[in-house]
Specification:
158 residues; alpha/beta; Glucose Oxidase, domain 1; 10-stranded mixed β-sheet; two-stranded antiparallel sheet; 4 helices; 12 strands
Length: 158
């Protein structure tokens, strides 16, 4: 994996650099992969449904609207991600079960933690263009994440 700083040095403003608002929670601090997107609000039903599917090295990017009122990912969902081959999960919102997630071999970045679980109404959108952290992220984009931050490109960079 190439460091995000090195990618920026090589590709500059052709990369979309997410604002530095995310904290690392997963056991994998460095991860990359093609993007799958979800847009939800305080409902993690679609998050579970996505992580139950084969990840094939993808990164699930969840736009939770920046809500800090409940968690969209916990240790059970993160474990589903590991078991199904997801490289990482980015949550524009909260997670919970931070200690167990830190022991899992998956990248997880989120704004914060909250012990409150989400509702389960099955509401939200899949495979849509998201806009948060000062960038747009589309399904099929390629995401790179490490301790320096998160960058997104239109395709995998060599």
């Amino acid at each position: 994996m190439v460091a995000t700083a090195d990618l920026y040095d090589a590709h500059g403003e052709t990369l979309r650099v997410l604002a530095p608002i995310f904290r690392d929670f997963g056991g994998a601090r460095i991860f990359e992969g093609p993007v799958a997107t979800l847009k939800v609000h305080e409902d993690n039903s679609l998050v579970r449904a996505a992580l139950e599917q084969p990840g094939e090295g993808r990164v699930l990017v969840v736009d939770g609207g920046g809500s800090l009122r409940c968690a969209l990912v916990g240790d059970n969902l993160a474990m589903l991600g590991v078991e199904n081959g997801w490289a990482g999960i980015i949550v524009y919102g909260c997670i919970r079960d931070a200690a167990p997630i830190a022991a899992l071999a998956i990248g997880v970045k989120a704004l914060a933690t909250n012990p409150r679980k989400s509702v389960k109404k099955g509401e939200g959108e899949r495979d849509v263009v998201l806009r948060f952290a000062e960038v747009s992220i589309a399904p099929g984009d390629y995401l790179y994440a490490d301790e320096d931050g998160v960058v997104v490109a239109g395709a995998r960079l060599d």
